Structures are given as structure tokens and as C-alpha cells.
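Students often ask what a holo structure prediction actually looks like on paper. The answer is less mysterious than it sounds. You provide the chain, you provide the ligand, and the output is a string of C-alpha cells encoding the 3D arrangement of the protein together with zinc ion.
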Amino acid sequence: MGVTLCHVHGRAGVAHTCRHIRAALDAHSTLPTWRSYTLPHPPDHVVVRMCDACVTENNLPVPGRMLADDEVVLDQLRTDPYCDACFVELTSEP
Ligand SMILES: [Zn+2]
Ligand SMILES: [Zn+2]
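The corresponding C-alpha cells follow.
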């Protein structure tokens, strides 16, 4: 998993989210329902969270799972990196 520099958490793991999830995070509004995918991203892998609309748009398998590198490329998904620790805090049940 890649690393991001977060103003709250410092060096933290990076979660890639689709633009809809990112917009909801930025607005502190309710997130759309989403699924989690793990993509190979040499020399590591990345976790990508996509909302249902993006899952459909990109023909991603349901339920979310580990994807092979010939199935989908991270760049195709137009995701934004987001601090994984922030994501977990923002999405965990109160
Ligand atoms: Zn989306
Ligand atoms: Zn953070």
C-alpha cells in the first residue's frame, strides 16, 4: 500500500477512492455505498474503494475482491488518494 502525508496522521497508508466518495468525504456528507478492491500496483498493491455507480461504470466484479493486473489498471479508475486512517475514522460507526 502506498503512503500519503496527512496533516492529521503524518505518514499514513493511502486509500484510493472514487471521485464520488472523495466528494462526500470532503463535504462530510453521507458516503455512497461502496465496495473495496485490491489492485496489484508493483512493487506493492493498493486498496481502491469505489461507489456503486463507479463499480457499474467500470464493470468491476461484485462483491469486491482482489483484482488481477490484466483486469483493471489503477489509472483507468480515476481515483483520488486519501489518507487511509482518515477514511477509517470518517467511515467507522460512531
Ligand atoms: Zn464513484
Ligand atoms: Zn489522516
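The CA atoms of residues 5 and 11 lie 5 Å apart.
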